[in-house]
Amino acid sequence: MPNRKERERFERLMLRHLDAAYNLALWLMREPAEAEDVVQTAYLRAFEHFASFTGGNAAGWILTIVRNTAYNSLNKRKRSSNLISFDEVVHSLQPDHALTAACPGPEAILQAAGDRQRLMDTLQRLPVEFREAIYLREIEGYSYKEIADITQVPKGTVMSRLARARGQLQTLLTEQQQRTQSRVV
Amino acid sequence: MSCKEILDNIEAYLDGELTLSDRRDVEDHLADCADCQAELERRRALGQVVRKTGYTPAPAALKRNIKAGLKDLTGEAEARFGWSQLIGFSGGSALVASISVWAVMSFLPALSLQTRLHDDLITAHVHSMLVDHVTDVASSDRHTVKPWFNGKLDFSPQVHDFSQAGFPLKGGRLDYLRQRPVAALVYQRRAHLINLFISRADDRQPRALHSGSQQGFNLLSWHKQGLAYHLVSDLNKKELAEFAQLLIQADH
Question: What's the mean per-residue pLDDT of chain A?
Fold first, then answer.
């Protein structure tokens, strides 16, 4: 049984990444209650395997466990396919630059995104693997290599996922903007 | 570089993932190509939009629950969960119906104390529904339910009806946790039954709301004025927490 000293060391190293862990879980699970469940389960599991943490990148270590716990939970409930289902091959076949011809400028994108909640709703329509890549890159600012380590895929996959994810997001925002415009007219 | 090559590298350029020489090539091209520059600005704007969402701070309760859970794992919290041993059911043939559920839940090895407490509570909850023995006294009238416990327990549980808030009282029964009689009050939310177990707490320390979920059931526990309260239901967490707030406020 781990002792008090280890618990204190674990808390010191890992609790400072609680916000990052919670936000990653929130992006993956979408529901705050489920995100809380995932983070709590992940932290307790992480503590049980604390011996396997050999120092170094504590944030990366705990986020990997949070991410795996979230996927377990999603797979268990077979919910990962309830919106846009993810298929690496199919999603990779869409040439992302084909979209850009009809794309709006930066101001229009900002406008279409609307308030924070609306933007979150739009982001949540992306497949979970895309949300994960965008979260780790844009919010956490991780490098491709770091994202590859956390998500356990090759660096090239991270790069292509990010490109598709951004392409899809742009498409969703463009559609949203067109809908808004047609309502105004 | 051609425009096509620029588009292939534009993400990596913005993400700072290009080598120095590739970056120079991209920048040279951008300086002369308005189309690619416009594309770059679009991508940059998209990134800004996403980053605008920012962080949602983790709830304070989450940190508390993790800390409490960690203490359970080290055994530091042992004293707080004194009554979490096995349940002794009374109820004759009723026992047979629940024995398999009970066996699976109770003998899992190496469960933390808190997990065992949760198991016990869930078992009692499931048991009450399995054997169709939800209530000993079926009444939505708290003036009927409360006196029914007189002489059966060495404390007098507060009984409230929350029909107005959508949690009608269905009745009460005597249950047993660790061979100790406890009051079980039964409430309903739509099709969900809620068991509220009230027992004497092992210490008089008040304890803040503590949540858990297992096997599809949600649990909420707190200690107040020397009594331990435990809610168990398949109702969602949010509504169960609302109900806990009603109970805590009503007891004031």
Answer: 83
